[in-house]
Amino acid sequence: MRIDFLKMQGLGNDFLVFDTPSVNGQSVDSNILRALADRHTGIGFDQALMLEAPREAHSRVFYRVFNSDGSEVEQCGNGARCVAALMYARRPELGRELTMESAAGVVHARVREDGMVSVDMGIPNFEPRSLPMEAPGVGPAGLGAAGLGVAGPAAPGDASSGEMPVYSLEIDGTNIEFGAVSMGNPHVVLRVPDVKSAPVERFGPTIERHRLFAQRTNVGFMQIVDRKRIKLRVYERGVGETRACGTGACAAVAFGAKRDLLDSDVRVDLPGGSAIVTWSGPGQHIWLTGPATMVFTGSIDI
């Protein structure tokens, strides 16, 4: 089976993008994706974006997201921007405003005249069950069995949801405070004094696979520079540390802004470049803006 593909990247977060193949009943499975993700013997990518026919008449495309370990995930912010850029390049006469679909739901996007792409990443959800994450009063383990505590002042709002402004977790004798937010996929956000020395490799894999997170989680390490700028590194679920993570950028800004540490428009500096995240507050949609670039095209027999 031959696959025609595009290699795209957004802020160094790189993608294999291809239309869903089906030859004599064959399909692309997790083993094939893992082989293609190998940067020495395959194509190499952080995520694969598989494009399918839209489910709804008003949509341009339905896209599926697979990590380099072959696991399918709900959403990818930089991937959504790349898909939007590709859909516009294929049919520019349909306009710069696009509606797309993913496992996380409907995604609205805008391809700007300067080449930047903005995507509506939905409404950040801070309820633990949305990740899902076990928390006090949520999940069968409870507070003691899960080993989860609460740090900081009491949370406002619906206490029955188990939502708290900050949670704490002990790993290897170290108490770690973090925020938790779903962007259609799960995110944990740790505030650090300096991202350069952040313990990404030490804590990232452990938190990703901690028993509190039934579907594992992405882990962000955020340094707040000022109210309009943060620096961020993300250890992505099923991938490891990447040069950029769009949903991670949104999660970090939402966590910081909800605690009144950040303004509504924030520049997020990632190892691969900078994105802009815009969020006016709880209950509102959050937008991610940044570049999306086509690197090369090719075909491969599998």
Question: What does this protein look like?
Answer:
The chain is of the alpha+beta class and 302 residues long. Helix content is 16%, strand content 39%. A hairpin with a 2-residue loop joins strand 13 and strand 14. The model is unreliable at 137-157 (pLDDT under 50).
Helices and strands in order:
Layout: E1 2-10, E2 13-19, H1 30-37, E3 47-52, E4 62-67, E5 72-73, H2 77-90, E6 97-102, E7 105-111, E8 117-120, H3 142-146, E9 148-151, E10 166-171, E11 174-182, E12 186-191, H4 200-208, E13 218-226, E14 229-236, E15 240-242, H5 246-258, E16 265-270, E17 273-279, E18 286-290, E19 293-301
Parallel strand pairs: 2-3, 12-13, 14-16
Antiparallel strand pairs: 1-2, 1-19, 3-4, 4-5, 6-7, 7-8, 8-18, 9-10, 10-11, 11-12, 13-14, 14-15, 16-17, 17-18
Radius of gyration: 19 Å
Separate helix tally: 5
Morphology: globular
Count of beta strands: 19
**What distance lies between the first and last C-alpha atoms, to the nearest angstrom?**
5 Å
Strand-residue proportion? 35-45%
Q: How much helix is in the residues?
A: 10-25%
Order of H and E elements? EEHEEEHEEEHEEEEHEEEHEEEE
Oligomer category: single chain
Question: What are the key terms here?
Answer:
302 residues, alpha+beta, 13-stranded mixed sheet, 6-stranded mixed sheet, 5 helices, globular
Short description:
The protein has 302 residues and is an alpha+beta fold. It is built from 5 helices and 19 strands.
